[in-house]
Fold ABC transporter ATP-binding protein.
Amino acid sequence: MTSTLAGSGSPAPARRPPLDPNAPVILTVEDLKVQFPTEDGLVNAVSGVSYELRAGQTLAIVGESGSGKSVSSMAIMGLHDPKRSRISGSILLDGQELVGAPQKTFQRIRSTTAAMIFQDPQSSLHPLKKVGPQIAEAYLAHHKVSKQVAAKRAVEMLDRVGVPNPDRRAKQYPFEFSGGMRQRAMIALGLVNDPKLLIADEPTTALDVTVQAQILDLMNDLQREFGSAIIMITHDLAVVAEIADFVLVMYAGRSVEHGTAQEVLANPRNPYTWGLLSSVPSLTADVGTELHPIPGNPPSLLNLPEGCSFRPRCGFSDRVPGDRCAAELPEFRQVPGEPGRMTRCHLEDPAAIFADEVAPTLE
């Protein structure tokens, strides 16, 4: 499915079509914060996340569980209970501000402007309704057409996503589909109204490697056909290498690195990203070679540590003079001399540390 970086076991980006710098901006997220009041305190699930995505581009949001990947994307779709969450900042979707928007706005944009595919299609598809009518129902909700036209559209979408015998399959229930076929049906459901933005939350996690590759190839093909912008939420760097144009790495609710997939996977500038890459098994390593997982656990979002949230797990904080890592939260700043690249770290020369000390361990 993917190649590896020269001399290393790290996944290397697949060849993607050239990006159009003049493509319209579909999504702009600025200083997004998502908080959940609880009896134990305020959960700071997302803290100040910002990024931009244009038509035809794919952004992979990467990080461990609890990093804020899914929470930030669910805010775009309006899936957080406004009575139990606090959302601030700005989310501009196709020019429309969504922070503070009423539920009627989200009901209108879901499926037409933005759609979301979840990790488990079994729980997303209604078990007692046939697959075709479920897709047709989503089409009918936003188009004034007959049920016959909607049913035909459902069959067309099942055929487009590679479901064999779509006429017959449209009349079957979700439990009659394999895991890969259910995920294809979910993609058909997500794309039936030609949304400008597609959010895929761990869509291949439960699939075997062969089916995973097929689903990723399908998403690449559909993106070229429909021109949608895609947000891929994942912890799998092989998936990132296969589908992403840009990568946003998150940790403890904050952005810690952003850049093109080539830049982030080949020459990362943040110790957390180094840890993620070091955790990937090498295809060229000897049998029995030990992995190098990130030590410790992510911090509680109820009580984040002072200074850099990654400091308790970072093996390089002693390279920073004084107690800056413990006392001062690093700014999310541009990497000097590399426009568009962002990192959150106090290290003065992370490029040299990666080249001299980290990259050799990935071989």
Summary: Residues 1-9 have pLDDT under 50 and may be disordered. The chain has two domains: 1-15+22-113+195-363, 123-194. The domain at 1-15+22-113+195-363 is CATH 3.40.50.300 (Rossmann fold).
